[in-house]
Structures are given as structure tokens and as C-alpha cells.
Amino acid sequence: MAGLNKDDLKQMNRRYFQSLSQERLVEVADNLHKLATDLWEKQQQSSENSSQPPSKDNPYVSLSTTEESSQTSESESVEAKTSLKQIEESREKEKKQKSSRKPGKQPGGKGFGRKQPLKAEVIVPHYPDLCSACNHDLAESESQRYMGYYVLELEPKLFGFGIVTQLHHYYRTTCSCGHCTHAKPGTGYISVVEGRSKDLQLTEYVLVGAVLATFIASLSVRYRMSRTKIQEFLKDWTNTQLSIGTIDRCIREAGIACVPVVEELVEQLQQADILHLDETHWYERGKLHWLWVAVSTKTAVFHIGSRRKEELSYLVKEAFVGWLVTDGYAAYRSHPKRQRCLAHLIRKAIAITGAINQKAATIGQWILEDLRALIATIAQGSEDARGIRKRMAGLRRVCYLGKKVEHTKLQALAKEILNDWDAVIAFVKNPELPPTNNEAERALRHAVIARHIGFGTRTSEGSLAYSSLLSVIETCRLREINPWTYIAEVLALARQGLSPPPFPVGS
Ligand SMILES: [Zn+2]
């Protein structure tokens, strides 16, 4: 039988038990015992003995409850409502009304002007170099100023940094040929999001300079500060007042500027001998998405998308001939050279060692011991081929035993190991392969914490900006270089419509 569900439990009460014959009562008790055992084992799970992340929020559960609740609030129930139910429904309705409102300033709302006056500390003049009509050098000709705007820029000092107000002056010059040429602030890529009133254009004609914008992006992406916290921080520590909209723009600009850099990194990934792959769930506008990561020794690329197999081909191209280190996710299975992450299997085995079914617990313990011994033997560089073969045969035998025990989780684990046997033991024949996927899991950890704080991203552009920044930051970390000077340079060039400099190889 399929096991007791919520509806079954609801129908059971003391009176029902009293009405039953002895024989039926035993049946019911047996079913309840099964349920209690399942629940108890589930309760024992933690991030240490299963693949569960440290936070307990299961994305499927939270999504399905919101779906259910919206269904109940849509269909007016005919039955008499208890007061509790009424409260519940009115709360759900409130939530729904709130979520239908778009985040940010509402259309038609009153705008805010700049309250803090700016005073220029540095004047930066821009003259046209050449006549745009005849290419004549304009250095000797007389120029007139025709426009100017303020830029707040972060300037590093020997110790610390300061924010400087620059006044950029733009000049026009009339050539001896009679043609008048204007120096203009640079413009770059335009990022379009459907349904948005104003597209994001990369341009130099903005209040926040490239280095300060990168600093703001670092506060958001690396130090996980909210837009409001960044606003507060800049005001309190640097006496600089910026609107939330301006802060948000800086973060997206820095991210979008990094997109071509990431394309280069994806190409570099394909050259790797070993690629670690992992994924975790992510939210884009509250909808379930996946955050993928592919890590080699010197490069990391993040990608936000669906959980379909096609998303994987963005990170691992068909031309990739190296090894993949992955968890058990089916989309990876088609790659011929693959190492299964044994840490995942070990955590599952640990969970089974605590099973109520004694036989299952014992076999779980054996699987655990065999996996650990195999890892230790290879790590020590053992030459004892016979001992290793014996150990592998032992693990296989134990898994066949486990398949026959009436314990769902043990059966699943045993099948998982046997069905994917070649990938489980690939590291035995190829000792250069790491038997665990720690690299990828560690790379994802930062984003997992960010997801808990900020609940994901809001638009496809936000996701692209976030994953691109993560890719550049993590790759810089692997190559031991400062990510922020590089990103600031990339952004400054992107605002002029220029390509990024080649990614530093690092040490
Ligand atoms: Zn000319």
C-alpha cells in the first residue's frame, strides 16, 4: 500500500479505534508504525548525513504549499468556515495582493530629486582628437565647452580610499575644413528586459564612476549587503547620498559588463582535464530556477537557468573530452568520463546507519566503511591491486545484499551505486581524479547563503548580472588576483562600448 496520507490520518480518532476488531486494529497499528518509522528517520536527517543543505527549506514543499493555498483562496469553500480558516484565508489574500504589486517605485508615483548638492573637486576635460569629417588633428584648434556633468568616483589612497567629485567637461572643436566635431561621453551595450519601462544602457554619462560602481557591486554580491544597507553604509561612512535606483543600476551594470568575460571563461573551461559540476536551486522572481556551477583548477563559471539538460551544454560543450566530477543528477549521465561524488553517497550511507531496521543499519554501515576505506587506500597511493579489487568486490556484494532488504533508502542507495558503478569507482583506475565534489560545493556555498538572505534575483537580467559577477570573482579567487580592479577596468571599457581586456592568467 502507498502509506497513510494526511486525509487518512484525519479520519482516524479514538472512537474509530474502539470500533475495530482486534485483527483490524493490528493492521491499523502496523500502518501507523510504518509511518512513524519513516518520519523518525526523516527527522534524523541533517546536512551531515544527507545531501540536504544546512537550511531546512525544501523548495518543492514551499512551492507546492503556495500553489495549494492559492487554489483554496480562489474557490470559495461551501462548507462552514471556522474562524481559524477565515484568518488563514484573509492572510493569504493579503499576501496575494502584496505580491501583485511590482517592486520599486510605482508608475505615476512622485519622483525624488537629488537633495545633496555636488561640488566639483576635480575637472576632467574631454576634447575631440580628430576631425570626424577629414581626420585632421584638432590639437591646435580652438575648442568651446558645450556640456558637463558630475561623476562620483572612488579613488584609492596609500591606505584606504576616498570618494571624489569630478566635473567632466566636453568640448567641441571646429576644424580648418569647417566641420565641427563634438567630444561625447561613451556608450555601450543596451540590455533589454521585456515589459520594463527603461532599458539598461551602459554609458559614461552617469553619476557613479566605474570604480565606485564596482565597489557598490562588491558590497552587494561579495559582502551580501542589501540595496538599503549599501545606501546607509555610503551615507554614514563616505557622506555620499545615492538613490536605491542608482545603487541597483551600478550592480547590474557591473554584472552585464562581465558577460563577454564569462563567454571567454566558458571557452577556457573546455580545455580543463577535470571539471567539477554541481547545481543548487535558485529563485528568479520567486520561481524555481537552478544555479549551476562548473569549476576547474583555474576557472569557475556560474549559470542561472532551468534544470533541463540543455542548460548544462552552456557550461560543458560537446567538444569537452575531460573528466566530469558530479553528483547523481541524471543529466550528467551521458558523459562517458565521469566520477561520482562519493561524499554524497557517504552522507546517504551515514543516514542509513541510524535506521530502525537493524539489518538495514548494518548494511548501511558496511557500505560506509567500504566507501571510506576505498577512498583512503587510493589517497595513500596504495599499490596493493589485489586488496583494492577485493574491497571493490566487497562493496558490490554488500550493495546486492542491500537491494534485497525491505528498507526504501537502503535499496535506493544500493541501486544508485550499482547502476552507476563505473562512475563510482572511476577514481580507482584514475588516481588523479578527486573522489568528491568539494570544489563545486564550496563554490556554490556563497550563493546559497545569498539566496537565504535575498531570496534570489528578480529578472533574467539580474540573474545574468549576478552569475557573471560570481564567475569573475570566483575565477579571480582561483587565480589569486584582485577581482575588483579587473572588473572596474572591464566596466570602464564596456561603458565606452569596448571589449574587455583578456582575463589575467594569475599565479
Ligand atoms: Zn576637418
Structure characterization notes:
- By secondary structure, the protein is α/β, with parallel strands linked by helices.
- The chain is 49% helix and 15% strand.
- It contains 19 helices and eleven strands.
- It has helices spanning 6-11, 14-19, 22-43, 59-74, 83-100, 210-221, 227-238, 244-257, 259-269, 309-315, 342-353, 358-379, 385-404, 408-419, 421-424, 426-429, 438-454, 460-478, 483-494, and strands at residues 122-126, 143-156, 161-174, 180-182, 187-191, 200-203, 274-284, 287-295, 300-305, 323-326, 338-340.
- The strands form three sheets. Strands 9-8-7-10-11 form a five-stranded mixed sheet, with helices on both faces.
- The protein is globular and about 105 Å long.
- The chain binds zinc ion.
**Bound ions, cofactors and other small molecules, one mention each:** zinc ion
Q: SS-based structural class?
A: alpha/beta
- The string of secondary-structure elements, in order, is HHHHHEEEEEEHHHHEEEHEEHHHHHHHHH
Q: What is the typical, i.e. mean, pLDDT? A: 85
